[in-house]
Specification:
Elements (H helix, E strand, L loop, with lengths): L4 E8 L6 E5 L4 E5 L9 E4 L4 E4 L1 E6 L12 H10 L2 E6 L10 H14 L3 E4 L15 H6 L6 E2 L9 H14 L2 E4 L12 E2 L2 H6 L3 E2 L1 H18 L3 E3 L5 H12 L4 E5 L1 H5 L21 H13 L4 E2 L8 H4 L16 H10 L6 H16 L16 E11 L18 E11 L2 E5 L2 E2 L7
Parallel strand pairs: 1-4, 1-5, 6-7, 7-8, 9-10, 10-13, 11-12, 13-14, 14-15
Antiparallel strand pairs: 1-2, 2-3, 5-16, 16-17, 17-18, 18-19
Helix pairs in contact: 4-6, 6-7
The protein binds (4S)-2,6-dioxohexahydropyrimidine-4-carboxylic acid and zinc ion (ZN).
Length: 437
């Protein structure tokens, strides 16, 4: 049993007067002015700080098994805890692909051993992400890892008949399909958003329609299958409009947006620095604005990091050769503050909603994204909203350093993360159950 944690003088959701919050092994035990400290309690001074439910990331790449030189469940869990996350969903595009319960169970077990964050495995929709044969979703769902979300992320399930079957099957299993919306016939060789910038720089363009045509198609497939569909990393204004339209039709669609698509646009490509290559690509300022509005209005449900670690040699090379993807776990909150809180598009309740509550609801986690109330799970994050920090990729817990925010001064810092009553991160230090590898 861990000792109890008492957070003094913090403001839940940044609202009202500061209170003390006592966290037990599993639950929030007390909230109020002057809660008495149990003898063995760890006391954290939360003055000036904000208490939120622990963040939930529906889209993380942890690279284990296969690319442990770039990230492991251990290092990725540390990055997650430092970023304020208490649950992450580890994408299936590992090597071997997480298309069987052997792999998904391993990911879950290793996550529990490390104990810094609940690592929920995402299962592949198709065998080997090959896009031709459905993976054994039922076996993965029934395994120890209890897979509740399936995705071929990195690739699109582009065959409409296969997608239809996947949605039908997922619906009967009560699990979620998350689509990386990219019509591959429209993105052959594409490395950048199709527009004036890519044209000028001589980079092969990725049209908005490559994303939007799949979003529209999958909304219709979900409608007909009576199934739910989740759209990964929405990147265009048109995707926001399509999701809004689908909802008016009663279609069960949800969508996430990444921190990088909320902040960066394709003007970043001028330097040809591979650090800015990502799928889907950075779009135009008008898309960035539409994504922010979409998140503020609730059309886009949540923020998901698409944390994508890559080795130095795979990013520091010719733009078109660079692997797509950027780190996200340790900067997500700060980018959300910068793009949504500071401009007045979201308050702290809104941050709790898009970084914790909605993602937990979308995948049906009943122990995450819960209200900060007595009797609720002790999964919380403490945030210093006034802190400013300079991003240094080499200071991250991630093995890789591919952050597009290097040297930027960002607002807000996670000061403590608590998972089931146990401190997993505090002031940048992490406390793995197994002492770390
Ligand atoms: O930029 C990306 N990187 N987008 C994806 O869809 C996959 C990811 C990765 O695995 O690196
Ligand atoms: Zn993706």
């Amino acid at each position: 049993m861990s000792s109890q944690v008492l957070i003094r003088n913090a403001r839940p959701y940044g609202e009202g007067d500061p209170v003390d919050v006592l966290l037990g092994d599993e639950q929030i035990l007390a909230i109020g002015a002057d809660v008495a400290a149990p003898t063995d309690a760890v006391v954290i001074d939360g003055a000036g700080q904000i208490l939120l439910p622990g963040f939930v990331d529906l889209h993380t790449h942890l690279r284990e098994p296969g690319r442990e030189d770039t990230e492991t469940i251990d290092s990725g869990s540390a990055a997650a805890a430092r970023g304020g996350f208490t649950a992450v969903f580890a994408m299936a595009n590992t090597d071997p692909v997480a298309d069987s319960a052997v792999i998904t169970d391993h990911v879950w077990r290793r996550g529990r051993e490390v104990g810094l964050v609940d690592v929920h495995p995402v299962g592949a929709v198709t065998v080997g992400l090959g896009g031709t044969q459905l993976a054994e979703m039922g076996a993965m769902a029934a395994g120890v890892g209890q897979v509740r979300m399936f995705s071929d992320d990195g690739k699109c399930v582009s065959d409409p008949l296969l997608m239809r079957r996947a949605l039908e099957y997922a619906s009967s299993l009560g699990v979620l399909i998350a689509q990386h919306a990219e019509e591959p016939r429209l993105t052959d060789g594409a490395v950048a958003h199709e527009g004036p910038t890519a044209a000028r720089l001589g980079l092969a363009g990725w049209p908005r329609a490559a994303e939007e045509s799949i979003v529209a198609r999958d909304a219709l497939l979900a409608r007909d299958a009576g199934a739910r569909v989740h759209i990964c990393h929405a990147s265009t204004a048109g995707t926001v409009e399509l999701v809004k339209w689908a909802r008016t039709q009663g279609i069960a669609i949800s969508a996430e947006v990444t921190p990088h698509h909320l902040l960066l646009d394709d003007s970043r490509l001028e330097t040809y620095d591979g650090i800015n290559r990502v799928n889907p690509p950075l779009r135009e300022r008008s898309d960035v604005e539409a994504l922010r509005r979409g998140l503020a209005d609730g059309v886009l449900d949540c923020v998901a990091t698409d944390h994508a670690p890559h080795a130095e040699q795979d990013k520091c090379c010719e733009f078109s050769q660079a692997r797509p993807g950027m780190l996200g776990l340790e900067t997500a909150l700060s980018i959300v503050i910068e793009t949504m809180v500071r401009p007045g598009l979201l308050d702290w309740r809104g941050v709790a909603k898009v970084m914790s509550e909605r993602p937990a609801q979308i995948v049906g986690l009943d122990d995450q994204g819960r209200p900060l109330e007595v009797g609720e799970p002790a999964n919380i994050v403490l945030v210093d909203p006034d802190a400013e920090w300079i991003v240094r990729g080499h200071d991250f817990a991630s093995i890789s350093h591919n952050t597009p925010y290097e040297d930027m001064t960002l607002p807000g810092r996670v000061t403590a993360t608590v998972l089931r009553g146990r401190i997993t991160a505090r002031d940048g230090n992490v406390f793995p159950l197994d002492g770390g590898r």
